[in-house]
Amino acid sequence: MLRTALRNVLAHKARLMMTALAVLLGVAFVAGTLIFSDTVGSAVKKASEKNLDGVAVSVQAEAADSSPDVGKDRRRTTLVDEKLADKVRALPGVQSVRSNVKGTATVAGPDNVPLGHDWQNLATNFQPDKDGHDPRYPLLKGRGPAAGNEIALDEATAKASGRKIGDSVRLATDGPVLTKKLVGIVSTDDPQVTAGGSLTLFDTATAQKLFLHPGQFDELVIAAAPGADQQELTAKVSEVLPKDRATATSGTDLAAEQSRMVASQNEALSQTLLTFAGIALFVGVFIIANTFTMLISQRSREIALMRAIGASRRQVVRSVLAEAALLGLISSAVGFALGTGLAVGLRAVLEANGAGFPDGPVVISPAAVLSALGVGVVVTVLAAWLPSRKAAKIAPVEALNTVEAPPALRSLVLRNSLGAVITGLGIATMCYVSTLKDADDLPIAMVGGALTLTGVIILAPMLSRPLVSLAGVVTTRLFGISGKLAKENTLRNPRRTAATASALMIGLTLITGMTVVGNSAGQAMDTMTAQGLKADYKIGTSAGLDPELSQKVADVPGIEAAAPLRNTGFTTPNSSMGLMGTDLSTIGKLTQLDFISGSLKGAGGNDIAVSQEMAKMKGWHTGDTLDATFYDKKKAKLKIVGIYADNELLGDSIGATSLAAPHQLVPMVESLLAKAQDGPSEGLEKQIRHALGDSPLLKVQDHADLRKENAASIEMVLNVSYGLLGMAVIIAVVGVVNTLAMSVFERTREIGMLRAIGLARSGIKQMVRLESVVIALFGAGLGIAVGVFCSWAVGNLVSKGLPTYELMLPWGRLALFVLIALVVGVLAALWPARRAARLNMLEAIGAQ
Amino acid sequence: MSHAATSPGFPGSPASARTAAVAARATDLSKVYGQGETRVVALDSVSVEFGRARFTAIMGPSGSGKSTLMHCMAGLDRISSGSARIGEVELGSLNDRQLTRLRRDKVGFIFQAFNLLPTLSALENITLPMDIAGRKPDREWLDAVIDTVGLSGRLAHRPAQLSGGQQQRVAVARALAARPEIIFADEPTGNLDSRSGAEVLGFLRESVRAADQTVVMVTHDPVAAAYADRVVFLADGRIVEELHDPTADAVLDRMRLFDSKGRTS
User: Fold this and answer.
1) How far is CA A740 from CA A14, A760, A765, in A?
2) Are A758 and B131 a contacting pair at CB < 8 A?
3) Are residues A547 and A642 in the same domain?
4) Which of chain B's residues have a Cβ under 8 Å away from the Cβ of A476?
5) Do A804 and A816 belong together in one domain?
């Protein structure tokens, strides 16, 4: 029977092509994901290994939160100093010790645009040997920084900034903006930098002044003398360290830790990608099953003949499954090759967008090969399983029937009952989900969504009759006989129409769900921005502002009111909550602050106001006193002077700056709110920037900017999912093409007759095209409906962090999806319609 | 031979109004397939006229070119040289779109294998050519045709619910309903039992007699040919003989004659 299977694959290669394409695309997705993550993972691992090369022990200073001198300024204090470094240097087995200061600094590029990703922008100290070289950062040009006003940059950053040796460079750490002279350009293979960050080198004294205190370091990197044992050395170093203020880790452990981190990051990414690949393959199942069903009904006479001459049922099934396996294997192999290209391409695209992966060869692991091929073959065989059972049921006597009887439509009763039960379960679950509020219940929502989708897929043949008939009324009115014939053809085999449409429906359900939730969340954020914020500007950096800067904004002429937001928190005997320190006299002008009871009049000292939600939860009232313990362990009695309607910006409670600021672990202002006398203007924005030292890190955002920021983050998530779900939609389109090609093939004679009695080629084309459009719209309509339903149901889960969340249907987008379905329908019909129109009339009439 | 076309009958012009005009005409019509060594001459300079309101049968052995002649005359196939006209329209000068329009508006077809659309009801199949043309059927005529072919009770049925004879009667009604200038029937009784076949032929002859319909039928069945007013015999792509007001026996005689000629030559 294997030979029959092989012959069949070869004989129907054109018709199997579309099926192969479905498997191929899915497998390419899987293979691409696996290869991409292997390749990037191995490159990152190699880069970090290289970075740790020669590191025997690393000593990390612990942050010194409770040190008494913190709080005056934002610099950290460590107990790792030159004396400790010398002590370590003197230990036996130590060859050399590097003492590093580490911070972040962002360089301003052309037009004051910050370069790199600010959290990844490494700033450290250049440590020259006697010749003025630092082996860790080999100089490419110029010399190392030696004075307070000098810096060196890595090659890529220097190039991006457009500055040459001798030019002055503007850069910002977390304080005021600095202007330094570029004296050197270095190369580096630090993974933090090669992965998209920048590197700024100061001389040691300057680095210490910026980030720590004179004489202090963040880390000691110890190289071992030849023959010294890493673990022993680590233990010895540990002994000389101040207890609890610094830890020593061996290079081996460090490497292991890093590769664990790389692996887990990688895994998260590849799991996301594999989920989408899974969706694509699931969609493919429908197309494969459809093709095999069609092939078997076309071949039923042949199969009956095989049975008549003595082939057993099992042999028939096996032959069909062997054919599927063969098809799966061939398409998986091609898909794998395509996937390899995809992985390389993906990396290049991400690289071009500044992802910054370290270099490395493409890694194709045997596991990737096996799983991609395995998945392709298994999916194809599974999808062909039901059709193969159908093949086995063909009676030998059918070989003797001379008249081609139209296949009897099997009853849908069983299918509809099952579908109704599953859909009912799904809808019930989703209705239950709509009452849930906790994001932890998301798995229930996913189960409910999957049930609903599955149920509707099972019910699709039943749903096709009324819906397609409805569409048929429109097509008949608009396109006359072609429209009517298209409707009839679509209804001819409800199972096939449904399976084809379902493939499209799956993708559209997910796309719609994401779009609706994203749109609603975006609107909610917009509302929040617009309602809550009376200030014209929100000013900040991603790392926060120096507290000293906040007064400067208030002093800018034209600013009516300004207030800092300084976040800290405290615990009471039975709760833990946030405290926002701000200017209580001006905050009411800057944000919508509606008091349910009490007020901020005359508030100060240990007075706080709490949010309505918090007060309700804890049963607090105006006038209550709380025993609070701040995060820095200091205790205070706080008096509640008012309760305000929930305000997203302010959170649980507010108090005076003087109350909150001393308890911040790292003293900083999260952001500044400012209101202009005459509303926002470009000139004013410039003045604010200028008052704050024109730091490239500084964000001065008006309402429009804030809205854009919200929208941009949501849009990005949506675009990525559109891209990933696009594959599922493409596979579904392949399915539509496939179904139409089969339909045209089966209806050759009818098409010939229609041509003979006077339907023009254009009419035939129109007929096929309309059938395609109706199928596509049917699938899209169901998908959009299920997607909207599911996004309605999960609304409460999403709205947890967004009090203003409301279901907002993005009508424009939804209309666009319908339009896309229409276009997809027309495009999918291009080739089948052409084929149908070009059929030779005389041959077609005579065709059997 | 007596033919039982006794159904209600077509309204139409009385028999006396028949004219001797020509509905379709082939002049030096040739059809050649292939080139070089594979060149086959299917029709070799055929000249023939099909009279208006006449029932003409085309006969001949397999490969004689009778189907090709019909296809060329009906605008289903292109001619190689010569002329083929329906009415005054020269088919050779028409492009594909014009040919399609011509078939739609002036030609009716009846095929051996019925060729109905399984998704449409009997009535919808009957009105299909007019639906394609976007014309409203002439209600009175349509009712008469349906009545004549005896399908009144089955109009809502799908083809799969009808017997072979009933299906072919739907096909006949489809060809007649649009009142084409000429109907071409390709072995219309080939798939029918003799009773159903006789019915179908009876309708065709009745449409010619009572309603001045022009019918051209390709057949290899002498009994079917005997329903025609005239039989044209084809052999090797040429017209070899004609017979007016034929009987089945006369037709059979002629055919035997060609057969023996074929064997001796």
Assistant:
1) 13, 19, 11
2) no
3) yes
4) none
5) yes
- Contact with chain A for residue B33, Cβ under 8 A: no
Nearest CA-CA distance, residue B195 and chain A, Å: 20
Higher pLDDT, B88 or A69: B88
Mean pLDDT over each residue of chain A, to the nearest integer: 85
- Among the candidates A701, A736, A751, a domain finishes at A701
**Domain shared by A183 and A115, yes or no:** yes
| pLDDT over 70 at A149, yes or no | yes
Cβ distance of A845 and B111 shorter than 8 Å: yes
Tell me the pLDDT tens digit for each residue of A430-455: 988 888 877 778 888 889 999 999 99
Residue A748 located in a structural domain: yes
Q: Which of B94, B98, B103 to mutate to test binding with chain A, by most A CBs within 10 Å of its CB?
A: B103
pLDDT digits (tens, 9 = 90+) for A258-296: 778 877 877 888 888 888 888 888 888 888 888 888 888
> Does the residue A774 lie in any domain?
yes
Whose CA is closest to A394, among A381, A408, A411? Answer: A408
Note whether A696 and A561 are same-domain residues.
yes
Contacts of A760 in chain B (CB under 8 A): 97, 100-101
| Mean pLDDT within A541-548 | 71
Q: A241 in a domain, yes or no? A: yes
The ipTM (two decimal places) reads: 0.84
Question: Of A90-104, A315-329, A546-560, A816-830, which gets the smallest average pLDDT?
Answer: A546-560
Is residue A580 over pLDDT 70? yes
Q: How many distinct structural domains can be found in chain A?
A: 3
Contact B104 A758 (CB under 8 A): yes
Q: Which residue type, as a one-letter code, is found at position A81?
A: D
Backbone φ/ψ region at A338: left (φ over 0), alpha (ψ -120 to 50), beta: alpha
Same domain as A92, residue A229:
yes
A554 & A640 share domain: yes
Q: Give the torsion sign (CA, B100, B101, B107, B112).
A: positive
What pLDDT score was predicted for residue A329?
93
Q: Write out the residue range of the structural domain in which residue A247 sits.
A: 54-251
Last residue of a domain, one of A203, A229, A251: A251
The alpha-carbon gap from B161 to the nearest alpha carbon of chain A, in Å, equals 11
Average pLDDT value for residue range A419-429: 93
Per-residue pLDDT at A698: 78
A492 is written with which tokens?
């001819």
| A596: three-class secondary structure by DSSP | strand
Of A12, A730, A657, the closest CA to residue A323 belongs to A12
Choice between A408 and A794, residue whose per-residue pLDDT is larger: A794
Cβ of B105 and A758 within 8 Å? Answer: yes
Nearest to B132 among A481, A752, A842 (CB): A481
pLDDT (tens digit per residue) in A3-48: 776 677 666 666 678 788 888 888 998 898 889 888 888 887 887 7
**A484 neighbourhood in chain B, CB within 8 Å:** 131
Q: Is the pLDDT of residue B13 over 70?
A: no
Q: Looking at the complex, does the CB of residue B129 fall below 8 Å from at least one CB of chain A?
A: yes
Tokens of A16: 């199997």
A755 and B105 within 8 Å at the Cβ level: the answer is no
Residues A733 and A648 in one domain: no
Mean pLDDT of B237-252: 88
Distance CA A753, CA A761 (A): 12
Q: Which residues contact A770 (CB under 8 A, 6 or more apart)?
A: A475, A479, A482, A483, A486, A487
Are B97 and A760 in contact (CB < 8 Å)?
yes
Interface check B117 vs A, CB under 8 A: yes
How far CA A342 is from CA of A20, A331, A499, B187, in Å, comes to 18, 16, 28, 59
Can you give the pLDDT at residue A184? 92
Cβ–Cβ gap A753/B115 under 8 Å: yes
CA A308 to chain centroid, in Å, comes to: 57
Interface of A with B (CB under 8 A): 406, 480-481, 484-485, 488-489, 491-492, 749-750, 752-761, 763, 841-842, 845
What is the token pair recorded at A840? 């030779």
In the prediction, which pLDDT does B4 show? 42
Domain-by-domain residue ranges, chain B?
Answer: 22-264
**Class of the domain covering B22-264:** alpha beta
Nearest chain B CA: its distance from A715 CA (Å): 46
Does one domain contain both A696 and A729? Answer: no
Tokens at B260, concatenated: 């023996």
